[in-house]
Design brief:
- The radius of gyration is 19 Å and the shape is globular.
- It has a two-stranded antiparallel ribbon with strand order 1-2.
- The chain starts with 5 loop residues before the first helix and ends with a helix.
- α3 packs across α9 and α5 runs antiparallel to α6.
- With about 280 residues, the chain is mostly helical.
- The chain contains ten helices and two strands; from the N terminus they run αααααααββααα.
- It is about 60% helix and about 5% strand.
Length: about 280
């Protein structure tokens, strides 16, 4: 059996410390600007995000859908902003991702044509069921025992009667609707702000806080440990992303088409989306 080298954990630890530090730097900068009357923040243009209300998901983000009514024009008038000190760099990766999504669109459409929707949903259900410990732990860290019990109930029902999660039977019960908790939300629950905005290659919009959260979630995800060699867990994650790509591409293209300035629209939309998840 292949063993994991210490350097792998050392690299992850260094990245975690870096993201955590940068997150608080971004938060401190934002707080300083808010307290300085000579540097009052001007909210980003949310017109593009307001017009693009048909998207259900963001590429690279959580699989759970959200309420579209929360992003109707009359609902996004609140001033939501995020520091973007690396805008030039972020725009480069935004353009890179845009070309990548465009390039893989025919492949994703072909996959959707060959693999029926119910099969893609089953694959997604099984993968989501595997991530139960990660979501359950974040519910506990937020001291939200109601969500934790719901998450446990979902896992029990889907793992037994749902054939290992292949069928999401639990969602038929309103009290067991899919939970969507990650460590980024846990940090937000305890008062950590977004920090600065960043666009990650292939994954898309993120923030210093949520980027650090993704690293922690990676460390608590069973797929990181139950597969040998270790990189099979990452291959599985990539497979899950590709399995969802047909739907994600449609949502991405719809949001981009309705946006006046796509980069700003996605940035604002991301902040609104994450803030809503935290408040749920």
């Amino acid at each position: 059996m292949t063993t994991t080298t210490p350097s792998r954990y050392t690299s992850i630890l260094i990245l975690c410390v870096l993201f955590f530090a940068l997150s608080f730097v971004g938060c401190a900068k934002k707080t300083k600007n808010a307290m300085d009357p000579a540097r009052a923040d001007i909210p980003s243009n949310t017109t593009g995000a307001s017009q693009a209300t048909g998207s259900n998901q963001l590429i690279g983000q959580s699989d759970a859908p959200f309420d579209e009514d929360a992003f109707a024009p009359e609902a996004v008038e609140q001033e939501l902003s995020i520091d973007d000190p690396f805008e030039g760099w972020n725009r480069f990766w935004f353009s890179f991702n845009d070309h990548f999504y465009t390039a893989v669109t025919p492949l994703a459409k072909g996959y959707a044509y060959v693999v029926p929707s119910f099969m893609r949903t089953g694959i997604k259900n099984v993968y989501n069921n595997l991530l139960f410990p990660m979501r359950f732990l974040n519910c506990l860290l937020q001291l939200n025992f109601t969500k934790a019990s719901r998450e446990f109930g979902r896992f029990f029902i889907n793992s037994t009667f749902g054939i290992g999660g292949l069928v999401d039977l639990a969602k038929t019960d309103p009290n067991l609707y899919p939970q969507n908790e990650d460590f980024g939300q846990t940090l937000a629950h305890w008062g950590v702000g977004h920090g600065f905005y960043m666009v990650t290659p292939f994954l898309g919009p993120s923030s210093a806080r949520d980027g650090f959260g993704m690293l922690i979630d990676l460390g608590t995800s069973p797929t990181t440990y139950i597969f040998e060699p270790w990189y099979l867990g990452y291959i599985l994650k990539a497979g899950d992303r590709f399995n969802m790509m047909p739907d994600l591409i449609d949502d991405y293209q719809e949001l981009k088409k309705n946006a006046i300035e796509p980069y700003v629209a996605f940035r604002d939309f991301y902040v609104q989306y994450r803030d809503k998840l935290v408040k749920e």
